[in-house]
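Weekend entry, working from home. Most of the wet-lab plans are on hold until the incubator is repaired, so I used the time to fold the two sequences that have been sitting in the queue since the last round of cloning. Logging both here for the record. First:
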Amino acid sequence: MTTESEGKGRPTPKRKDSEAKRITSSLAPVVTKDQKRAAKLAGRQDRMASRTAYLRGDENALPARDRGPARRFVRNYVDSRRSVGEYFLPIIFLVLVLTLIPVKSIQLTAIALMYAVLLIAVVDGIFLSRKIRKLVADKFPGTATKGLGMYAWLRSTQMRRLRAPHPQTKVGDKN
């Protein structure tokens, strides 16, 4: 035991000094601002290159939900045809504008148009889903068709220029 007359033989370190010692003695490497900036730039370039490859449709850049020959076939099949669903968003915008007109008949017609297009898009999606599953089962025997119909329908409801990966076929092309 130490008594009051005995000390530890050295002054108590300042808080600032002990915190600085703790931070610099960690296992993390010392990184300068230039190194951080370079790492950030390299990461940004990697992400941009990865996104470009994804939008191009490179198989190794695609997420699991878009990979495989069956999914590529579905994307190309959907992209080679027009559907009512891809015009749904512009029609909704038109309906919004038309409902602002203070004439009841125009407002009701606009709302009826919206529901009609929605119903047609859903019916088209059901038929597309059934056809896709049949075509994939014929073209790729042994491939699971679960989820392919919904995948096709969701892609067909997106506006063509906003689809990702970008369409690789033109409208009217045969698969």
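Second, folded right after the first finished:
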Amino acid sequence: MADQDLIYILTAPFQLQQEIRKSIFLAHAVPVYDKLQAEAVLEEFKVSEATHNCWAYRIGLNYRINDDGEPSGTAGRPILQVIERQNFDCVLILVVRWFGGVKLGAGGLIRAYSGVASECLRQAPSKLYIPRKEMIIICSFSDYNLIKARIGNYRAEITKENFNSMDVECHLSIPEEFYEVLKLRLLDLTRGQIIIEDL
């Protein structure tokens, strides 16, 4: 996987404040997973007394931007470009500006909004996003002990276990890249005596 294909997500909200030519810029970077959550975050962090509340978010293929009264293309789009350049997903960045009396011009605004958004995202706690898939397996007790000893090699995690008098039903979460390989390994380990259901 090439570096540009790697996707990062925030693990917690983060904020950063900078003064640029007497204006105060306060950036909030917040993880969001749907439009309603993004709207709730904006409602929570917008400052009505501030001069501008400019923002952008990206959730998968969906994105929105808002210049909030700044000249068109000088705030929301530069913020979105920062999100895309740093390969983030499921993130909203809101930059609140209090005007300090010095006009920055279009170029200055683009540099200010993208600069504070970029630094905020750079410092925010984040992790690599690893797409995962889930499967349900049903097997005997003896096979299950063998399976549990091996699945760690595939970074699989047990999310649920149900034991009954006959067998074990287990839910596994597996990184997408190991999914098919693990299925073949489970069939091999149990000599085909396992039921595997995709979720």
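Plan for Monday: verify the second prediction. The mean pLDDT is 92.
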